[in-house]
Amino acid sequence: MRNARCLGVLRDGLILAAFVLYATPFLWQLLTALKPEGELTMLPPLLPSRLTGEHFRAVLDQSVMLRSLGNSLGVGVITTVLALVLGLLGAYGIARYPIPGKAALLLLIVGGTAFPQIATVSPLFLLMRSLDLRDTWLALILANTSFALPLVIWLLLGFLQEIPLELEEAASVDGASRLRAFRWIVLPLLAPGLSSAALLTFLFSWNEFLFAYTFTATEASRTVPVALALFPGVFEVPWGDIAAASMLASVPPVLLVIALQRYLVRGLLGGALRE
Amino acid sequence: MRISRRSLSGLLLLAPALVALGTLTLYPTVWVFWLSLHRRVPTFDVNRFEGLGNYMFLASDPRFWKAAQVTALFTILSVALEVVGGVLAALALRGQQWGARIALSFLLMAWALPSVVTAKLFEWLYHPTVGLVNFLLGGVSLNWLGDPRLALPGLILADAWRTMPFVALLCYARLIAIPTEIYEAAQLDGAGGLATLTRITLPLLRRILLIAVLFRTLDAIRSFDLMFVLTGGGPAGTTETLTVYAYRSLFQAMQLGLGSAVGVVVFALVMLVAWGYLRALRSEGVVA
Fold first, then answer.
1. How many separate helices (H) and strands (E) can be counted in chain B?
2. pTM of the model
C-alpha cells in the first residue's frame, strides 16, 4: 500500500517536472529579464550570479513601453465594453424576437468568427486613412470591436438559449416590464457567458498585432505587441530589456486567464458543443 | 413586406451590431474583392481596373505557390503536433493527484501570451551563440532562424508550444466529465491501461478533438503575427506563409491590388476549409 502511494507521488512529481519543462521558454525569459547585463552574452552558466531589476527599470524609464501599456489597456477595455454591449443587444434580439432572415444572419455570424484579419486589413487601412483615424485609439477600437463581435454574439446566443423563456414570461405575468425581467432575471443568469465573452474579447484586443501595426505610425500610438515587435536597439539587440518588456506585456493576459479560467473552456468552444 | 412590431423591436436591438459588422467587416470584404481586381500602387499613383489580372499573375507566380506550400506544411504539422501534445498533456493532467493546478496554470499562461511575446521568447531560445536550445543540444551552434532548413521547423515548434494548451484544455475538460464508473467497469472486465485508453478514453475524446482540429486549422491558416515577428518570412522565403506574402505585398511593396488578391485567397481558403469540415462533422453527427 505504501509502495503504491510512493509510486503515485513519484509519478505526480515527474508529470509536474514535465510541465515545468514545458514552461521553460517563459521561465527562461523571466530569468533573462532578471540577469545582469554582463551575463547575458554567456551560456553556461545557466543561473545568474545575482538577480537584478535593472532591465525592468530601463524599460519603465522609457516612455514608449509605459505609453504602449496604457494604449493597450485603454483600447482593450473600451473594445471589451463596446463589443459586449453591442453583442448582448444583438444576441438578445436574435434569441427572443422573430427576425426576418435569421438563418442567413446566423451563417454570417458563424462565418464571421472564422474571418481572417489579413483579408480586410487593406480596405480597413484605406478606410482609416480616409477618415483620418490613423494613430488613434478609435481606429483600433472600431476594428477590434467589429472583429470580436461575431464571437461575442455567437457565445451569448448559446448562453441565452439555455435560459428558459418561461422565466421571463413568468416575470411579465407578475407585472414586470420586459426591461425589468431582462435586468433582474436574464442578466444574472447570463453572467458566466458575459464573463467568458469579456475575457476572450479583452485577450484578443490586448494581443492583437496586425491592425495595431498597420494603423499606427507614431511611437506614441503603439500598443504593447507593436512596441515589443519594434523594440529599439541601437547597436545590438537589448535582450535583457526585451525580456523585461515581454514580461510586462504578459502580466495582464496571464493573470486574467488564470483568474477567470473557469469561464474559459466554454468560451473557447464558442457554443459549438452541446453535450 | 409587413414587418410586425416584434420583429421591429428585434431589429432595433440588432441594429448597432449590424451597423458595426456592416461597415467594418462586410463592406471591407466587398471592397477587398474590388481592390483585388485593380492594379493599385499608391507610390507611383497607379490605380486602374485589371479584372482578374492579379489572380492570373498569382497563378504563375512561384513565390505565391511557395507561400501556399509553406502555409499547408505549417498548418498540417503544427496542428498535428498540437493534437498529440494536447492529448498527452490532458491525460497527464487528469492523472495528477497534486500539482495539477500549477500544471494547468502553465498551460493557461502559454496560451494567453501575446503571440508577439511568444515570438520574442523563441527568438531568444534559438539564439545561435547564447540560445538555450543550442546549449541543451550540447553546445551546438545551429542558426535556427537563419538556416533555410531549420527555420520552418523552428517556427512550427514555437506555434505548437503556443497553441497546444488549447487542445489540452478542451480535452481535459472532456476527460474530467467522464464518469469514473466507466473506468471501474472496464477494470472489472479486466481491461488493461492501453485497452482503456484506446477503447474508452480516445473514443470519448473524438468529438471534442474534431472540433479542436477545425478551430486550430482555421487559426493556423490565417495566423500571421508569430511568423512575421519571429522570421519575417525568411530566410529565403522558407517561412513566408500566404498571410506574410499578402502583408508584404500590401504594405512593403505597396501593391494594394496584388496584396488584396492574396488576402482574398486566404479568405477563400479559410471559408472552404470551414465549409468542408463542417459538412464532414455534420455527417459524423458532431454538430447540428
1. 14, 2
2. 0.94
